[in-house]
């Protein structure tokens, strides 16, 4: 659950000056119900996202926390900075990724290309990054990232998400070696306050997220893990 509105607000910040946005998401994860190999996967995840633009670019972060009946079982966060002092749709990008449960620190740097429609209902971004994974057998790697946000039907619905592909030498739970990882998390939201007779201050959205991955973490092969979700935007 990440990067889902980052590029939309990067582009808005270029046109409208200072912009700040944040949301909190609650996801009921169906992974345990679909895969025996995920029998210990937590059922509930929360995500907190924050974006703030300024005259030098923008800052974005998100924090994921997974919960069991004993409390928080794992945590992961990313923080990134976009730097832009020019009018071209390309910005410099620096980023840190890290978390609990044997997740190595990762430091990324590179460039971001962004595009939007005139009304910002369609936003796309592409990142080309160098990725240093601390304590990995082969720490010097690359990452390609794509993001998108589509608002339609007078902003009643939002389809957004990201796709990451990177090189990382790692092993799955059975000891098989892998050199590349792919993960995508498209989300679909129904924005309740955009419907007639719903208070505009009710910033609640309901929807779903689909985690699509290949050789991610200690898994071997392709996994499809959906969630049922709610989001409150501030």
From TrEMBL:
Signal sequence, renumbered to the chain: 1-21
Key words of the record: Signal
Top-rank taxon, per record: Bacteria
One Gene Ontology term, aspect cellular component: cell outer membrane
Presence of keyword Signal: yes
Name the record gives this protein: DUF5020 family protein
Lineage: Bacteria, Pseudomonadati, Bacteroidota, Bacteroidia, Bacteroidales
């Amino acid at each position: 659950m990440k990067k889902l509105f980052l590029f939309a607000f990067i582009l808005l910040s270029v046109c409208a000056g200072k912009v700040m946005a944040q949301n909190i998401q609650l996801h009921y994860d169906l992974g345990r119900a679909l895969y025996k190999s995920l029998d210990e996967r937590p059922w509930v995840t929360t995500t907190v996202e924050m974006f703030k633009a300024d005259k030098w670019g923008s800052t974005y972060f998100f924090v994921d926390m997974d919960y069991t009946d004993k409390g928080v079982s794992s945590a992961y966060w990313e923080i990134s900075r976009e730097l832009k002092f020019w009018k071209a749709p390309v910005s410099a990008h620096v980023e840190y990724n890290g978390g609990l449960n044997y997740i190595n620190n990762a430091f990324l740097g590179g460039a971001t290309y962004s595009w939007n429609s005139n009304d910002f209902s369609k936003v796309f971004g592409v990142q080309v990054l160098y990725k240093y994974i601390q304590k990995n057998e082969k720490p010097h790697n690359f990452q390609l990232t794509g993001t998108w946000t589509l608002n339609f039907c007078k902003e009643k619905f939002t389809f957004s998400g990201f796709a990451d592909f990177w090189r990382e030498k790692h092993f799955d739970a059975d000891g098989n070696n892998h050199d590349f990882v792919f993960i995508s998390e498209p989300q679909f939201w129904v924005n309740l306050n955009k419907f007639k007779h719903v208070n505009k201050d009710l910033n609640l959205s309901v929807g779903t997220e689909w985690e699509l991955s290949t050789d991610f973490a200690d898994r071997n092969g392709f996994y499809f893990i959906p969630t049922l979700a709610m989001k409150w935007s501030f």
